[in-house]
Amino acid sequence: MFDKFIRPFQSKTAAGLISHPGYLMLLAFFNGALLMNFHSMYRKDLVFSLVLIFFGTVSMIHIRHWWAAVANCLLTLTYFWGKFPRMANHSNLEFFIEIVILGLLLAKVSNRNFRIPDGLISRIFRFSLVTVYFYTGFHKLNTDFFNSSVSCVNDINAYAFSIFTAKPVTLSPQLSSFFQYATIFIEMVLPFGLLWNKTRKYSAMLLLLFHLYLGLTVFGDFSALACFLILGCLIDFERRSIDSGLIRHIRVYLAFIVTASIAKPFLDKYIIAQEVPHLHGALFNFGALWFFAYYLRHYRAADTGPRFRQYLIPACCCVLISLWSMKTYIGLGNSANLTMFSNLVTEKSRSNHLLIDTRKTKIFKFEEDNILVLKLDERLQKEKAEGFIFPVTEFRYRASNWVKAHPDWAIHCTIVHKSDTTVVTDLRKTGLIRTEWWYRYLNFRKIQPDGPCQCLW
């Protein structure tokens, strides 16, 4: 009886709609990234989490079950669709990737002869990943990121160090400066090594070590996506076979992710809260180290050679990512477009970027029409809005959501708009909750009124 049940899941040569080992590996890794991203979804929707883990386990059993990754793409797409673009950067990236995966699948279903040229997918991965890394570093080229008192490198690295010291750590100005320049190098220079055969392997190794380090903090979810993207840069799509040893290592990698996902509720319940990200990230790191140590040891860079048509689409991907990320300098939002942990300020009057002066580049003035929140209903203290400035469009969007989320509350606040102080007893009865549909896409972070810009997501 048991043999009859397990036989369909035993190792076989992949066949059917998707059989290319490179695509099967990528789909399995993307499934793992989705599990890491939704590791705490059980708090909101236990059934959602269980279904996600089930399909992740199916991918773990064997990568030929590509439909399990597609099922999780469809499942998580329903969540992303309602949140985009007001999500973490890695969630926005996964949202775009899911759309591409499902689009290619539809093309394959409608035409079984549909085929992507060898080398094109890997080039798209390389060009896109280099562009993403570049802009995460580019936004950090500002005076406050290089200010050792407030730089975003302080909190992240101090938190990572606390794993080994078991007590709070404060970075010295010298160590802070080292991490500032190291971060710029890792994000703006090192990824270009992925573009050349001779440097690809070593660039990937250093980037993976960087993400394994971040994985020990609260960035295991982003590190899992980075592993998927880096693997996409390395795969030789001319190969039509995959050895059994590599399949075993993929299984182990996914097994650690599934274990981390299953263990998360128990970690949250029985382990000290500040230790949970370390343990959750450590489980992921063990799996990633196990796989990539094997993969890179047997890796040989390969490329199909320069072909203009195979560079045109990757170049278009670079342009689209650039437009998405650089919109912050013309006034169309400065959050969730790779500006995370950058200390960046984009108000027209006090831009701090070293290369771009928003007094000359700003086209839209949403940030210049703003509201200062002096006091906010104590029941909304988790918003941490008091003492901060918000563009009017952003405040209205948030206020509308507060009212929708708490229909029985008379939410009160004290605000300053155009030098006029207003005491609001019930937001529901004011025009401050009137929004336009496009406010959702003008995603601005809160603004610090004065002084060096503290680190914000």
UniProtKB/TrEMBL annotation:
The protein, known as: HTTM domain-containing protein
Keyword Acyltransferase assigned: no
UniProt keyword terms in alphabetical order: Membrane, Transmembrane, Transmembrane helix
Membrane-spanning residues: 20-39, 46-67, 87-107, 119-138, 178-196, 208-237, 249-267, 279-296, 308-326
Leader sequence residues: none
